[in-house]
Write a structure and sequence with these properties.
2 copies of one chain form a homodimer. Chain A is α+β, with helices and mostly antiparallel strands. Chain A is built from 2 helices and 4 strands. The first copy, chain A, is globular and about 40 Å long.
Chain lengths: 106, 106
């Protein structure tokens, strides 16, 4: 996975932090499903993910409207499944406006 | 590590994404140093981190001024060291305003 190639700010980010319950194939499948749906969604700019004690998935978007559509298409389904299967012990979703960015070596 | 206990939005986030070069003790030491400096900084709200192919460190702050002070105190030192030692092959820092959040199970 690489650092997401995002345009000049401002743009938007969704920070999804997860404390995993029982981690299993279904968990991996759900993350894949969310990623797949994001990539298909208009306005999607990129995604970065890492996991240890916490899982962190950051997706980038060109508008709040695009985020809203993605959520309507995917999150509801994913959250429902997660609630039923007990995959996530806890999660937090933060909707952000990226005001400035800079980097090195990309 | 737990999900950061942040106040009612709006507040601010710094998303720090890293592609590691050679990972060694110095790398771990620098992350510890950045975290330590953040915790000591006025306006710091919490931090979440995970690492795989990418490392992602998200810190939360009550103002842009607090972020600016943290950067002045720590990032410059850290980046200089990183540049010299080749620890980070690439990194991106995104300064964000968290406009809305919600979660489950925290």
């Amino acid at each position: 996975m690489k650092i997401a190639e995002t345009p000049k700010a401002p743009y938007f980010a969704v920070i999804f932090t997860i404390v995993a319950g029982k981690i299993d194939e279904e968990d991996a499948g759900m993350s894949d499903q969310m990623a797949k749906l994001a990539h298909e969604q208009e306005g999607f700019l990129g995604m970065e993910a890492a996991s240890g004690d916490l899982g962190i998935i950051v997706s980038y978007w060109n508008s709040l409207e695009a985020i809203q559509k993605w959520r309507q298409n995917s999150e509801h389904q994913v959250a429902q499944k997660a609630g039923k299967s007990g995959v996530f012990a806890a999660f937090k979703i933060r909707i952000c406006k990226v005001e400035r960015d800079y980097g090195f070596g990309m």
